[in-house]
Write a structure and sequence with these properties.
The structure is a single chain. The protein is an alpha/beta fold. The protein has 17 helices and 28 strands. The strands form 6 sheets. It has a 7-stranded mixed beta sheet with strand order 2-3-4-5-6-8-11. Helix 1 packs across helix 11.
């Protein structure tokens, strides 16, 4: 029996950066100060704003190079329309990785590291110093158009995946940029929204992912478009100096999201370091603010100082811009993309029809995106190369057994032994989309599942969709997300049984959007739009985060609302048993820790992977707390009959909640329940722990 140790890192732990990082930053800031002394006032002013859309400005004669920034989390966005193409030799191609939400569905931080390292290497090959990712805003509601760029609804899962991504990416020399800070959880007129978030929710839900990335040494943070409690985040001293700098300990460069600030004086004094992209008229110039005595030259120096220090700390001004030898690693990157798709595909339902191992079956492939690779649009779009469509992948896998009919008749559906119906969405940055599918698409699925009881529905979307009217009639339901350039090959092999599905939902999928804690977030009488226009003409609207800390499964558990598919859910072709759960002690004291162990056994006939999940809940809380919260997870691969001991370390701080009276973390003495299971709804064992 092998033994696996997984150390819990509580979302509440506000760890300081390491001594080595502190020394590095200290030296970088000292060098930045020396460099600033060599600059003229005009040169200093030039560094306050971006250049040519995707660059930090440069002063080559002073040793300050132009720094290239590129989107996005899931690969390198190939921009062929740079205003100044002489600034960089653009890559000829980049791998289209699966969407980050599919990466989150792997529940595997080591795979997140592999993914981040691969993207970082492609950046270095293309002379990109800063990748404008990872995105990590919490999945608060299923209609958010950028959910595909993020890591799901749980702050603990997000934090663990983000810290691995950041460390691995920055090990290549590429700087990561956490975005969007903070509480940017909808795309409906995103420049006109005011997120009203209470102190507990901010600390327990929306900050932990950022804190994890900062503790991992992230170089950059991008502020968001929205207001937080009435102030635009990109020009808010409370957000940047208060939350980001003082509270979270961030020392790198802060940049605005593109064209997101309006008050230049506030922006300069807020702690913001660079306004992007630098081409917009802000109503007043820096020189005018100086002449009016509203700012000082010292304010300018303080603004540009972290930008220079970050570039110095990462060696951007001294190193060779390109590493063409890394182009040889693209084949390895393709393998990483494939592996993420293989381990992130989630089998939601299976009545036994899968895997499709028998030969000679008449398989009808129909639905959406048969020839198109579905992907999210906007800054995160990555086209990839050697793209394999669903049609191609299924034909390669099943050969002559597959018939492809885009618009089948009822007779076609009934005549097939198996129907594979692909359905999904194309999520677009800045454009919210309904939870429910268009009626025409919905009716097509209903017709398929009623005409043929052996219908497998494959969902390719960046977020949850409404499946309530047909999921019970489907023989199987698979969530394939946006699988990247070669992910359909992995999905086809899962259907054929050559791969065993092992993905888990990183968010809950509700039955109706009205069940969601965010229901009603859009202004009354608001209409969805397909193209964003005249956003500045829309009146600022409030989004009260009335659910507070009860986001996702925390809401559904506490309110006793059953989702259609719960957080952490995902089926396998094999079976697993969790047995012999134990605590190393029945009590835990301040600053102490205990161990939780259990035995996981593959009791089936196929090798596979299971994600053992540990949740903790306070039995009699003094404030509203979720029934349980994820505090540990471990993905374990086992062969048939193999067993392993899975061990978690629980620290006293893992029991804490944010007390908004003392403005700090607090643990109430008393009884806590520890839940061990395979999803938030599938709990196998409950243990009891007393906090002293």
């Amino acid at each position: 029996m092998k033994k696996i140790l997984f150390s819990l890192i509580a979302t509440s732990c506000l760890l300081s950066v390491t001594a080595q990082q502190q020394i590095s930053w200290e030296k970088a800031y000292m060098q930045a100060d020396k460099l600033i002394k060599t600059l003229s006032l005009d040169e200093k002013i030039s560094l306050m704003r971006g250049y040519s859309n995707f660059f930090f400005n440069g002063i080559p004669e002073k040793g300050i190079k132009y720094i290239y920034l590129s989107d996005a989390t899931q690969g390198v966005n190939m921009r062929n329309n740079l205003p100044d193409p002489t600034m960089v030799k653009q890559l000829e191609r980049s791998v289209a990785f699966p969407a980050p939400i599919m990466l989150a569905a792997t529940f595997d931080p080591s795979l997140s590291a592999e993914y981040g390292k691969a993207v970082g290497e492609e950046c270095r090959a293309g002379g990109i110093e800063v990748l404008l990712g990872p995105g990590l805003n919490i999945y608060r509601q299923s209609q958010c158009a950028r959910n595909f760029e993020y890591f799901g609804e749980d702050p603990f899962l997000t934090a663990r995946m983000i810290e691995s991504y950041v460390k691995a990416m920055q090990s290549t020399g590429t700087a990561a940029c956490l975005k969007h800070f903070v509480a940017n959880n909808t795309e409906f007129y995103r420049r006109r929204q005011n997120s009203i978030v209470d102190e507990r929710a901010l600390n327990e839900i929306y900050l932990p992912g950022f804190k994890a990335g900062i503790d991992a040494g992230v170089a950059a943070v991008m502020t968001s478009y929205n207001q937080l409690d009435g102030e635009w985040t990109g020009q808010s001293e409370k957000v940047i100096k208060g939350l980001l700098r003082d509270k979270l300990g961030f020392q790198g460069v802060v940049m605005t999201d593109w064209n997101s600030v309006t008050d230049w004086e506030k922006t300069i004094k807020s702690g913001q370091n660079i306004e992007m992209p630098g081409s917009r008229d802000l109503g007043i110039t820096t020189q005018e603010l100086l002449s009016q005595g509203k700012i000082t030259e010292k304010d300018i120096e303080q603004m540009i100082r972290p930008t220079l220090a970050t570039c110095i700390a990462f060696g951007f001004y001294d190193r060779e811009k390109y590493k063409p030898e890394l182009l040889a690693k693209f084949a390895d990157h393709e393998k990483t993309a494939y592996r993420v798709a293989a381990e992130g595909t989630v089998l939601l339902k299976n009545n036994g029809i899968l895997p499709l191992t028998a030969k000679g079956k008449r398989i009808l492939l129909t639905g959406q995106f048969l020839d198109e690779i579905p992907r999210g649009r906007g800054a995160a779009a990555v086209k990839g190369y050697d793209n394999v469509s669903l049609k191609q992948a299924m034909q390669q896998q099943f050969g002559n057994d597959i018939t492809v009919i885009a618009q089948p008749t009822e007779a076609d559906l009934k005549g097939a032994d198996v129907v594979i119906y692909n359905v999904g969405t194309i999520d677009v940055e800045g454009v919210e989309r309904p939870f429910a599918l268009p009626k025409q698409i919905e009716n097509g699925i209903k017709t398929a599942v009623k005409s043929n009881s052996n219908t497998i529905v494959l969902v390719t979307s960046g977020s949850g969709i409404r499946m309530t009217d047909w999921t019970n009639d489907a023989a199987a339901v698979i969530y394939g997300w946006y699988p990247g350039q070669n992910g359909f090959r992995a999905i086809a092999k899962i259907m054929a049984g050559e791969l065993n599905p092992c993905g888990k939902l990183p968010m809950s999928i509700e039955r109706e959007f009205s069940d969601s804690p965010a229901y009603g977030y859009m202004p009354r009488d608001a209409q969805f739009y397909t193209e964003l226009r005249n956003e500045r003409l829309i009146q600022v609207y409030d989004i009260p985060y009335k659910e507070s800390v009860l986001v996702g499964y925390r809401w559904y558990d506490t309110k006793k609302i059953a989702p259609l598919y719960p957080f952490g859910h995902g089926l396998s072709y094999t079976t697993f048993e969790i047995s012999q759960p134990k605590l190393s002690a029945s009590k835990i004291v301040p600053d102490g820790s205990i161990k939780v162990t259990a035995t996981l056994t593959n009791t089936g006939k196929m090798k596979g992977a299971e994600v053992v999940q540990l949740y903790i809940g306070e039995r009699t809380p003094s404030v509203v707390r979720p029934v349980k919260e994820l505090k540990g997870f471990r993905k374990v691969h086992l062969t048939p009959g193999e067993k392993t001991s899975v061990e978690f370390e629980v620290n006293y701080s893992d029991l804490a909640y944010w007390d908004d009276k003392i403005h700090d973390w607090k643990v109430n003495p008393g009884m806590f329940d520890l839940y061990i299971g395979t999803s938030s709804a599938d709990i196998k064992h409950k243990l009891t722990l007393e906090a002293k």
